[in-house]
Please model this.
Amino acid sequence: MRFFAPQQRQPDERLLWSRDIRFANRLARSIVGARLLELDSGACLIGPRDALTDTLVAEVASGARSPEYGLVPVDPTLPKSDRYLVALSAAVQVSGIADRIGMAQTAQVVQTKLLDLFFHLNSHHVHFQPIVSLRTGELHEYECLFRPEMPQVPQSITSIVQAAIDTHRSVELDLFTVRRILERSAAISAELAQTGGPPLRVAINLTPASLLDDRFMAPKIAEMVRIAGLMPRQITLECTEQQAVPDVVPLRRQVKALRRLGFGFAVDDAGAGYASFRLIAALHPSIIKIDREIVVGISRDDAKQALVEAFVSFGSRIGARLLAEGIETRRDLAMLVSLGVELGQGYLLGRPRLHPEPPRKVRGLGSGDVAAPTAAPRPSRSARAGASRLARGHSAP
Model:
């Protein structure tokens, strides 16, 4: 659209979005040099910052039955081809109408524009968080956490993943993030090799849709890893929990093929979302990650203890190791160790960093003496019996 075409140097600008086109037109007539674009779902108005003021907008809105609108600054530091799209996305969100019933199309347009911006930017970061053996206290591997850097429209990777799923672009997102994670991991691995350090082992998140896509078939992932300078045995692939798996059979075949090539495979957020005992049993992962909502406060929650004990028993029966994420207190750590959880991750053990750092030293970890100041209670007999029945039956929690 010519409306968004690169132009000569502009003064500081602001952008207004409203679904009330008449209101936007009336406001445009009050501002010299304003640019108005009418869309199917509303109108977008751009004007000089000193003319498109809060006071003027409020005055015009009061005479137009107070329509909802979003008014935001246009960021001049962004590329010209992106700054108005970013501002439009922000204005729609500020207006609050994107979440209203009947505005799903507008919300999807915003998600699409946000993803376009995400793919365009090269300022994103990969952080590395240590995963630790709770038996020895030693490093097992690092989880790679992709952190978006999006000026003016801050987004978490969770919201980016959800936007990709909602707009059917999850495979495109995974290709983008995996390639950058592999590039960064390979560079760090090369640095470690020069200093005589151990090979870098990393865990990378993927959506189920990507694992079933031709571009992510096992031989192609292996080729992608080798081109980056790494080996499959250095990689654990984590299946994330924001998508249901309608047919587990092709996913099970893919997991088997990946395991044969040397990849580790983890099911993420067990105990939440779509990760039922039945799905985990079908996939036979090498690692089962316990959702942090179950881990936090487990030292004082009998029901959570019973559920984790069920997962431990279940994991031992299918040959999978249990990994607890979100460990933040010594009391929770002590309980997890007493329940037989082998691996851990969380701020207590190490925060995500731009460059991999060794895990924190926690007193008693690795010596079998990690008890909290007050001994954490064991699950009740009835809870343990229920957990045992749950594990034997492979039923959903």
Remarks:
- Confidence is low (pLDDT under 50) at residues 1-9, 98-104, 373-377, 386-397.
- The CA atoms of residues 174 and 397 lie 29 Å apart.
